[in-house]
Amino acid sequence: MSTVSPDKRRKMESALNQLKKHTVVVADTGDFNAIEEYKPQDATTNPSLILAAAKMPAYQHLLDQAIKYGIAKGGTEEEQVANTMDKLFVSFGLEILKKVPGRVSTEVDARLSFDKDEMVAKALRFIALYKEAGIDKERVLIKLSSTWEGIQAGRELEEKHGVHCNMTLLFSFAQAVACAEGKVTLISPFVGRILDWHKENTGRTSYEPHEDPGVLSVTKIYNYYKKFGYSTVVMGASFRNTGEVKALAGCDLLTISPGLLAELSQDHSTVTEMLNVEKAKACDLEKIHLDEKDFRWQHNEDRMAVEKLSDGIRKFAADAIKLETMIKEKILNVKNGQ
Fold first, then answer.
1. Catalytic residue at 143?
2. Is 192's pLDDT higher than 70?
3. Active-site entry in 143, 227, 308, 330
4. How far apart are the first and last CA of the chain?
5. For the chain, what percentages of helix, strand and coil (3-state, to nearest 5) are there?
6. Which pLDDT score, from 0 to 100, does residue 248 have?
7. Which PANTHER family match (predicted)?
8. DSSP 3-state assignment of 172?
9. Which of these, 92, 51, 55, 85, lies nearest to 70 by C-alpha position?
10. Residue 210 above 60 pLDDT?
């Protein structure tokens, strides 16, 4: 029988393990060796993370296999590159699914952010590639930019195809409301990037976790969803420090980089549940409905959200182009026998 008091046991327990009691912890990385170490439930990837991982020697075999696949599919150079990219994204997802018991998020190219039909087509292509590899769509979340078109693509994928979506690059309350009304599975509001914007634009250089604008944004969204019984769940993303993570303990899910997961595993301070359904139900929030015109107006009124959504799309698109360039060179080398 253990003689360790509950208080002392809590002190011995890492912040990461305490956090897992309140929130589903997700690893935000394409490096599946990091995933193995922290034992998250799910994992999320994006074009920037895949680009970083594809440059690592440990993952060259996945890139080589994807290139072989792309060349074998034939077609124009553009089609071969596109098929290689799709295969590479899914190959990383498949490896990640060997390490996590839950789901992996695979992101649709940010360059499609304003084309609903193309986003739907690309999502279904990913799902087909997962199916070919024996993975059911229940284990996959398709990541889409939270533009109006992206949210409608999410709605269509959920309603017509039973494909679960993770709406990313989410910065405004208007985006969150539209996602809930679209009945998507999950949203990823970006905590750290909201903080970055406020530091850059307000002259203020530091915020305590409880007053961090990113933390406040996610708290409001979580409370709104729970108060009005929406099925969409909230996964806080893009953290800059462990204070932000701990300030959102109790959120449905939190996706955390390996660096911060490492810090949390070494941290033995007490983690308290900050968000829960009871508190949310007691919040003074009013239910709103947004059609396209209302969405565009309300989102546009939030300067931070407009700037960060545009910036996020540009950055993910730039990394997708870098990955494409790398693949083009490798395809040429293979064809030239190098």
1. yes
2. yes
3. 143
4. 65
5. 60, 10, 30
6. 98
7. TRANSALDOLASE
8. coil
9. 85
10. yes
